[in-house]
Model the fold of this input.
Amino acid sequence: MQLNLYEAFILLSLDKIKGKFLIDSLSINYGLAGALLLQLSKDEIVRVVSKKLILEKIKHSENEMLDDCIGLIKNSKKNHSAKYWVNKIGSKAGIYKIQILNQLADQGIIKIQKKKILWIFTVTSYPVINSGLVDEFRKKIVDIVLNYNKPDLESILLLSLVNSCKLTRIFFPDKKDHKKANARIKELTKEIAIGEAVSQTIKEIQAAVIIASTSAVIAATAATASS
Done:
């Protein structure tokens, strides 16, 4: 089954059994923003020029979320950096996340479970039905990182998101494997075998996701410490 980049990112961010996200909601949102922008970059719709993210061409992507992102960039009064757009799109990514989860449920990959707590609060979880698909994605990632299998562009983009949002700690819990994974992912994203313009755009988006996710974690930690 073929999933696009942002669907694969959301799926890999879920605990297969519990149906809860493995990382915090802000990291999910910024990672999803990065996934949407990376998809636009891969499709050669956006690129970075002089540190600004611009529309390479304006066209309908036949996808509501991507078209929404294209509209935001198109209607902006001036050009902005990838960091700006990761934060801007990340601020509304909670809506996109629900749309993607519903899409995955419609495809029979996950199920949506709602449970009442104390008859007042509703808790929603998203356990994976098609666990073989998740295992396949994870195995592909591990084989690329630890066994040096040749990656395709989709895998490199997915790895850049996994690394940016600290999912590498979950996929590679062994300390030596984790260290090797970080080095290997950095090497892969540095040597992307595509056009220089697209390569630079991907690097800028990845860096923006890392900054946004790290800032979110620091802010959350500071808030917890002061409470």
Q: What stands out?
A: Residues 220-227 have pLDDT under 50 and may be disordered.
